[in-house]
Every structure is written in structure tokens, then in C-alpha cells.
Amino acid sequence: MIEVQDIVKSFDGTQVLKGISTVFETGKTNLIIGQSGSGKTVFLKTLLGIHRHDSGRILFDGRVYSSLSKTEKRDLRTEIGMVFQGSALFDSMTVEENIAFPLRMFTNKSNKEIMLRVNEVIDRVKLIDANKKKPAEISGGMQKRVAIARAIVNNPKYLFCDEPNSGLDPKTAIVIDNLIQEITHEYGITTIINTHDMNSVLEIGEHIIFLKNGVLAWSGNHKEIIHTDNEDVVDFVYSSDLFNMVRDAIRHMDKKKTKKELKNREQE
Ligand SMILES: Nc1ncnc2c1ncn2[C@@H]1O[C@H](COP(=O)(O)OP(=O)(O)OP(=O)(O)O)[C@@H](O)[C@H]1O
Which residues form the ABC transporter domain (predicted)? Predict the structure, then answer.
């Protein structure tokens, strides 16, 4: 679990994060959404310790990040997996070398132990016949699987994903979303995803926070976002006719379901 308490971050006297508080629970896919410039990346980087916040506290399972010693901070970093935008694989390395990289960097495991673990995660993310290939020789979807495998190879407690769907076709994007969600549940990871993808919001948004001008303007889950009347959320999420139609259709179905349930209860 990551607890965020009243985080403020400024650049040159201008506040970009204006007192954000939230809780990212363990075993859940937590999504950060908001317009361009709303502060999502700065927030993610602040959580990762790349930006130092001006005030407030970030607690990783009770550990206040800013109060940790250098060694404790380094140890905490080894508990974090990261899926970067565009995958960020090493072009000159094979798939298995890419995945093995964090284990070679941050652990003292033997080569045999490393390869055992690498093959375990390769199986888990269903990368078939790709071990010896270079990133340029596999599809974008496969590259994302490699990025996910590399992020989880060291058994992270926390998984950060920056736009994990960017550049993927809609079908592959959903497959990758589902894979991240399955892994989150299976291994009890606290997963935080920065996304622009409204399919992801509706599909895997177990806890969604909506940022507006550096303020947490709304939070809820994928069901609540369908029914919210928060004007800022509605304006942002349902800005396209297509999503408006999807919203109306789901609301209509939900109403019908509720009516049916009430009727059934009356008859019982
Ligand atoms: N290093 C920096 N120095 C000064 N200002 C910055 C810095 N990084 C971000 N900002 C400013 O902070 C604000 C929020 O930027 P941020 O990148 O977090 O937005 P975002 O919501 O991630 O946008 P996008 O969806 O386009 O990536 C912007 O006004 C940006 O110009």
C-alpha cells in the first residue's frame, strides 16, 4: 500500500501538485488520469522519488520515503518495478538479457538462478519463442510483455506503469491491460498506472484518481466513473460521442438490472 498525504510540488515558485492525498491499495490497479499538463507525470515522478516534494508525506507500507536512509531508499527502489512508456528495452540485448538485467544489477543471484527466474516470468507473460530475439525482431505487444516481465522479475511490491498502452492497437492494449491486472492480483502488487486510455479506465480501473490542475478532483472505480455527475470528469472522460454513447448504454443496462433485482426481491 502506498499512502500519499498532502503532497505539494512546485517548480520555480509555481505549484504543480497542490496538496494531493490518496491511498493506493495493495493488489489493486490504481489509475491516474487527467488532461495534459494536469500533473500526472510530476506526481508519478514524485512517488518514484525522482522529484523531491516540497511538503507532505509518501508512505510505502508505513515507511516514510523522505525519512529513509540512503541504504533504505536503495532497498526500497529494488521493490519497485517500472514499465516505461514505449517499453524502453535495450535494443542491443536479447529478450532474455533484457529481462535478466534487473537481477544482474540488483541481486547476487547466480547465472543459473537468474535464468530460472527469467524463464519463469517469460512463461508467466506468455512470451513464446522470443528468448533469443532482439526487441526490433518482435511486435509492439510482445515488447510490452518483455517490459512487464522485466518489471516483475525481481518480485516487486510496487509496479509503476507509464502509459503502458501507448502505440498498441485496441485489442492488444486490452490484452496488456488484463495481463497487468492479473499480475497485480496474483502477486499482491500495488500497481499505479498513468494513462490516457479510456478503455483501460473502464476495463481495469479498480481505483481511479482524476487530476485537474494539480488537484485531485475526483476518485472512484470504473463503475463509479460511469455514474458520476462530476462535471470535470464527465467533460474529460466523455468528451467523445463514442464514449458518451457507451456511458448512456451502460447506465441504461444498469438501471434495467437494478429494476429487475428490485422486482425479484419483492417477489421473494
Ligand atoms: N521539470 C519541470 N520544471 C518545470 N515545470 C515542469 C517540470 N515538469 C513538469 N512541469 C510542469 O508541470 C505541469 C504538469 O506537467 P506533467 O508533465 O506532470 O503533466 P501531465 O499531466 O503528465 O501531461 P501529459 O499527459 O501531457 O504527459 C506542466 O505545466 C509542466 O509544464
Answer: 2-238
